[in-house]
Amino acid sequence: MSDSQTTLAELRELVRHFVAERDWQQFHNPKNLAMSISIEAAELMEHFQWLTPQQAAQVTGSGAKLAEVGEELADVLCYALALANELNLDVANTVRAKLLKNAIKYPADAFKGRYGANDRGTMER
Amino acid sequence: MSDSQTTLAELRELVRHFVAERDWQQFHNPKNLAMSISIEAAELMEHFQWLTPQQAAQVTGSGAKLAEVGEELADVLCYALALANELNLDVANTVRAKLLKNAIKYPADAFKGRYGANDRGTMER
Amino acid sequence: MSDSQTTLAELRELVRHFVAERDWQQFHNPKNLAMSISIEAAELMEHFQWLTPQQAAQVTGSGAKLAEVGEELADVLCYALALANELNLDVANTVRAKLLKNAIKYPADAFKGRYGANDRGTMER
Amino acid sequence: MSDSQTTLAELRELVRHFVAERDWQQFHNPKNLAMSISIEAAELMEHFQWLTPQQAAQVTGSGAKLAEVGEELADVLCYALALANELNLDVANTVRAKLLKNAIKYPADAFKGRYGANDRGTMER
Fold this sequence. Notes:
homotetramer; mainly alpha; 6 helices; 64% helix; globular
């Protein structure tokens, strides 16, 4: 069941069920979940810590490395979805709204292949 | 179009399109994207920096605060989906595989409402 | 040789020497070092991931736990000092300047035991 | 008063005094401080988010940029020293001990200009 066949709701439910059957919601206040997303994000970064950007881009060519990076990304996403569950936030609508806000801040014609005073290729702020 | 009506593929395509129409893929090597997820995760944490867990849990009751936290979570998710796009990783399958791996590591009956030597309520490691 | 007997310069030199005798400066550009500080900061956070603030405060009472936390803090500091070395930044003067800037932003009489609109007990921003 | 004239104890005392005169210790449990170090580390990373390593290395040549980066590094260090104060950890001894541990793990002759299976130029783990 790939991304084209899985809704956000279905993926959130997998996470919710995993947490609930272990009775772990008691630990899932927003502060702990935000901290957990950061902890996993750092483990993801660690795979690229000393690599040049070119070396980093080669990770798609290595099955083993790609699998490891995929697992760290999955950890980030699991905690992010757990936080969405905890806060009753609709992920699709929240992401759409932020992209719309960013589209106004970074009109495509003005920012095509370039960036503002401080940022390059950032999707927000 | 809420989470029950949006597939992972559709959400990833929104992100891909946003990046492409600004010709920003040139900046989206995995190292920069991993760093970006961390940067946004820290902005999310900032909303809970000095709050007690009880105060943190009250964020669902405040419309304005909840909206701010939602925006930060959207930023984390946008960069995570951008990384999935960059690495051609199927998010649904990657998350499912990780949850299965965690289910073996943390059998529900053995870990119900409790935790291992070091971890409590963690979905991975 | 404790903190009262060690200057910042001496501690920076220990780090510089460690890096130099392994010829590791080639990897120590500011981007990689900033990423490394974040990676270690997350490992430090992991020790408190699911603890309540009260449980977190009890870490001083446990020799083994305190030693583990100390090692993570040392890792953060080593990379921070490595970055100061790389950028030729005087740590003492930089910290003093920032504390002065913060003292103006958060006058003691106005912020005694309380906080601004968003922040509590923060030393900066 | 530069790094060669300032002891770790003196710098820690500056931080302790700043916190105490605002009666902010009540917010400084280790969990919040660990979170704060991470938040500031991410603000430091943000200055290099989209730069190539070469562009990142050029920051020493720009007075304004170097000052900004210095302020972020100062924020990281302030919270790290606040945590050392909170945990009564001697920074110099803790850092020395960790460097000794790393020296055994990464003997200079074996790791000169090279790295282990996964890591390059890392000072720990």
